[in-house]
Amino acid sequence: MAGQLPVSRVLFYGEEASNEYLLATEVDGVNAAVPSHLSNLPSVLGSLGAGLKRIHRVPIDNCPFDQRLDRKLAEARRRVDQNLVDEDHFDAERIGKTAVELFGLLLSQKPHQEELVFAHGDFCLPNVLIANDEVSGFIDWGRAGIADKYQDLALAIRSITSKFGKEFVPFFLTGYGLAEVDEERVFYYQLLDEFF
């Protein structure tokens, strides 16, 4: 991502016994979830959408990180089988459901196609930094890789709705350049996120 996106620069990586160490530069700005953005929220959210589009334009030809749906479903199944899914932290509309129930829903509603892009993987407000009402950087790349663009769109929509209200989502979508949203895929990728 270096040279293509505003991200931290790695200064040092090392391993010792069972520990790994990473030292990186700071990314300027404050996260997009802070209330100080309320005074210019439409502009900030438009910038957020444009920033996501910029991520999605990174070429995937030589990307070594596979986050496609079949791989994510296999990992979700493993997490269900090993009781690693935190059912107490499901989104409000899924509280009271079990991971097994939701996994069955994931399988039965799996989209037939993916629009593959380089995806951030956890594109929510705290992972985007803003300076002067513009995106100044992106952090938390642990789930990045080749994935459907709705992996990012769905989590951004959920994050914006939760923090600022659903009425602000169109500013983000306009910044991204998306006139029409596939609500089924938004629902699906928000559901998938319950497992991670």
Architecture overview:
The protein is of the alpha+beta class and about 200 residues long. The protein has one domain (about 30-195): Aminoglycoside phosphotransferase (APH), C-terminal lobe (Aminoglycoside 3'-phosphotransferase, Chain: A, domain 2). Helix content is about 35%, strand content about 15%. It contains 6 helices and 7 strands, in the order E-E-E-H-H-H-E-E-E-E-H-H-H. It has helices spanning about 40-55, 70-80, 100-110, 150-165, 170-175, 185-195; strands spanning about 10-15, 20-25, 30, 115-120, 130, 135-140, 145-150. Helix 1 (about 40-55) crosses helix 5 (about 170-175), helix 2 packs antiparallel against helix 3 and helix 4 packs across helix 6. The longest helix is centred in the first third of the chain and has 16 residues, at about 40-55. It is globular, with a radius of gyration of 17 Å.
How would you summarize the topology of this molecule?
Blueprint: E1 10-16, E2 19-24, E3 30-31, H1 41-56, H2 69-81, H3 99-108, E4 116-119, E5 128-131, E6 134-138, E7 145-148, H4 149-163, H5 169-176, H6 183-193
Antiparallel strand pairs: 1-2, 3-5, 4-7, 5-6
Primary descriptors:
196 residues, alpha+beta, Aminoglycoside 3'-phosphotransferase, Chain: A, domain 2, 3-stranded antiparallel beta sheet, two-stranded antiparallel ribbon, 37% helix, 16% strand, globular, Aminoglycoside_PTrfase, AGP_Transferase, Kan/Strep_kinase
How many domains comprise the coordinates?
Answer: 1
CATH third-level topology: Aminoglycoside 3'-phosphotransferase, Chain: A, domain 2
Instruction: Tell me, briefly, the overall form.
Output: globular
Q: Which structural class do you get from the secondary structure elements?
A: alpha+beta
Provide the helix percentage.
25-40%
How many separate helices?
A: 6
CATH-wise, what's the superfamily?
A: Aminoglycoside phosphotransferase (APH), C-terminal lobe
Tell me the Rg in angstroms. 17 Å
- Name the strands of the widest sheet in spatial order: 3-5-6
- Unreliable spans: none
- End-to-end Cα distance: 23 Å
